[in-house]
Amino acid sequence: MSFVTVRNIFQSYGTRPILERVNLDVDEGEFVSIVGASGCGKSTFLRLLLAEERPTRGEIRIDGAAPAREPGRERGVVFQRYSVFPHMTVRGNIVAAESFATPLGRLAYGARRAARDRAQQVLDRIGLGHMADAYPAALSGGMQQRLAIGQALQARPRILLLDEPFGALDPGTRLSMHAFLQELRAETGMTVFMVTHDLEEGFKLGDRVLVFDKPRWDPTDPDIIGATITYDFDARNGGFPYQATQEDPHVPDTP
Fold it and tell me: Taking 70 as the threshold, does the pLDDT of residue 15 lie above it?
């Protein structure tokens, strides 16, 4: 059985359809890049995976569980703009991610000391150990994004959702963040969904590249039709259309 199963998803805002007939199967540990024109529902789909929104129709299941009604710890998210707490130190941001799983979001004194030690280990791992007592404003853009990813990982998610995580970075920092993400993915084996406008980036990092677009066009009312997955490329196999293998018996539904 697939780890992430998306079945017949429709999403509308009022009378405006955003997504229609979205079907997808993803194995645990896969890295899925999502590309497409602006406004074609990529970020909406990510919010549905996060369970920040609920679909108008259809369902999304993780590891066979019932569809989530709200975001949970099994899903981590990183946005384009550095989603860290500016009033907390760098170490405090990592500790906060762990405390979210406790009642009232608080750690007891002994547990907090242990969490601080674990946070320092995370910061050393992501190259920010020397900045543990600084505040996010003192970090460069690449450092802040490292911190945001480290914060998301500290909650031990099974799925990491990235919404244009490197779009605001300069080219050099962006390349270093690519390497950093590839290293973390190899270490953790988590499932990753990443929205990007950069097709080259999508194929470089992803195992699969999904293209979201409108399957047809009504010139009299362009907003009457929602987007769906129009292409599913296997980035590990020269960009050919993705095909389930015999060892991978699930067959994605045709949108």
Answer: yes
